[in-house]
Amino acid sequence: MKELHVHEITGHSLVPAKDIPALLDENHIEFQAIDCVNWKDYPYRPEVKFRIAHTGDAILLNYRVKEESVRAVAAEDNGRVWEDSCCEFFFQLPEDQEENIYYNFECNCGGTLLIGGGRPGDRPHAPVEITQKVDRWTSLDKAPFEERMGECSWQLALCIPKEAFFRHQLKGFKGMTAHANFYKCGDLQHTPHFLSWNKIDLPKPCFHCPEFFGKILFE
Question: In angstroms, how far is CA 48 from the centroid of its own chain?
C-alpha cells in the first residue's frame, strides 16, 4: 500500500480552481504518477500525474495528462463521465473502512463532474447543489465535445470542499488519516485504458475496490 502525505496550505479556505496549479507550484507540492496498468487487456498508458494539498476546509487536486486523444461527451454533472477522458479520486474516511463506505469524484476533461457516495449497492449520486460546490478548471474547452484524435496535453484542477462529502458532516481534514486511490480512464476513447495510483489486484477493470486504496495522511 502506498502512503502519501498531504501538505496543508494555510491562509486559505476555498481556492478558485483556476488558481490551484499556481498555488501548488508556490508551495512546492510534488506530482505523483498514476501509472499502474493492472489489466493486460488494456496496456495503453498515457502520461498521467496528480498532486494534492488541503486547506483544512477543502482538498485541492491538480492533474496533468498527455494522451493520444481527448473526449468530453458527458455535458451534465453526474453523467457518464468515465466514458470520456476522465480523472478520478476515490476517498474513504477513516471511520468508514469497516462499513465499506467511500466517495468517488470523477471529472472529465471538459469539467463535467460526478460525485457518488456510499457502500457497494447503495451509492447515490450527490444532488446538483452539492456537485456545484466543487469548483473545477480545465485547460481544454468546456464539455461537451466529441473525441479529438491527436496527442493532447491538458490539466484539470478541483477544489473539493468538506461539504462535498454529502453523507457526512466533516469538520475538516487537518490531521486526518484516510484511504484513497487516484485514477485515469476513458472507457469509450479510441484506446480504452484504466490506470491507478495504487495497484489493483482484480481479474477485470474495477475502480470500486476500497481494499486497494492507499493511505493518505493530512497535515
Answer: 12
d(CA 19, CA 153): 19
Which helix (H) or strand (E) segment holds residue 45: the answer is: none
Contact residues for 161 (Cβ-Cβ < 8 A; gap 6+): 14, 57, 58, 133, 134
pLDDT in tens, 99-149: 999 999 999 999 999 999 999 888 999 999 999 999 999 999 999 999 999
* pTM confidence score: 0.97
Which among 63, 61, 58 is positioned nearest to 12, based on CA atoms? 58
Give per-residue pLDDT as tens, 78-105. Answer: 999 999 999 999 999 999 988 999 999 9
Set of cell numbers at residue 44 = 495503453
Task: Please answer whether residues 2 and 197 qualify as being in contact, where contact means their C-beta atoms are separated by less than 8 angstroms.
Answer: yes
Residue identified by cell 479510441 is 190
Query: Would you say 59 and 115 are in contact if contact means Cβ atoms under 8 Å apart?
Result: no
Helix (H) or strand (E) holding 132: none
Residue by residue, DSSP assigns 66-133 as: EEEEEEE---STTSSGGGSSEEEEEEE-GGGTTTT-EEEEEEETTS-EEEEEEBTTB-PBPPHHHHTT
Please name the amino acid found at residue 132: Q
